[in-house]
Amino acid sequence: MATDVAALATGEHRTTEHAPRPRTRSAGSRIALLIGAFAFLFPFYYMIIGSLQKEPDSSPAGAFPDPSNLSLHNYAAIDSAISLGRSLVNSGIFTGGVIICTTVFGLLAGYALARLHFRGRGSTFALVLLVQVVPFQLLLIPLYVLIVRDYGLADSYLGMILPFAINTSAVFIFRQFFLQLPAAMFEAARIDGAGELQILFRIALPLCKPALMSVVLLSFTGPWNEFLWPFLVTKRQDMQPLAVSLANYISTVASAAANPFGAILAGACVLAAPAVALYLVFQSRFNSTDIDSATKG
Predict the structure, then answer these.
(1) Angle made by CA atoms 255, 258, 264, in degrees to the nearest 5
(2) Confidence (pLDDT) at 23
(3) 101 and 215 Cβ atoms separated by less than 8 Å
(4) Tens-place pLDDT, residues 155-203
(5) With 90 as the cut, is the pLDDT of residue 95 above it?
(6) Whole-prediction pTM
(7) How far is the C-alpha of 166 from the C-alpha of 26, rounded, in Å?
């Protein structure tokens, strides 16, 4: 009895000794996460600080500059060199056109591959997956000959948008999402006399908001940061997106600028701002949709 009491007391003592360890591990994991977050965010912080410095300082001390050395002079300098407003409009039209085309075509193709039964559906989906393997750079020469020489769409928004109008990744995302929806829901709509387009836009589309948001973000980051294709298609400065304008500034004008380092970082901040803002706005909407409620009643 005394031994049991002693063992119980010892066990309680050991439990008391081991109790703080989960807290220690939790604190260690938090510290590791904070270090990782700092390492990830520091380049963005340094980019913003560098874009605000009147006198460039590339040393480690430049990460903590004197407040008197901060101004918006670099933004005015890059704006006067490449016209930030016009470049942003070009990037917005290019990206917006790609998003609209990618979403519409991806939605239609994804629904057809998921819910329509036709001969060759499996082969068509295999072809979609095969296209993802082909690098875009491999298609640059035939695309350039087709769009610029045959169609005459150089220095035009349509010429920039067409190669990105259909995104096989968007088709894949929509197909996989529509396959997860209950088949009874579609069959009930067909029994009630609804057509396929009615089923798509009135039943399936309201349920696929997570997939829709994913496709929009996926379609945004690609063309917004795209450089190579717009650089080949556009020769006029007033038609070039911001990424191309910044590259031309770095290769031609930056060497003669008073503070090229700060001006380049200012342009990089402007280029990154819309993507960051879009993510912050839509990050809370990536929630799974309760598709079971659609089949109740």
Answers:
(1) 65
(2) 52
(3) no
(4) 999 999 999 998 888 999 999 999 988 888 888 888 888 888 888 888 8
(5) yes
(6) 0.77
(7) 46
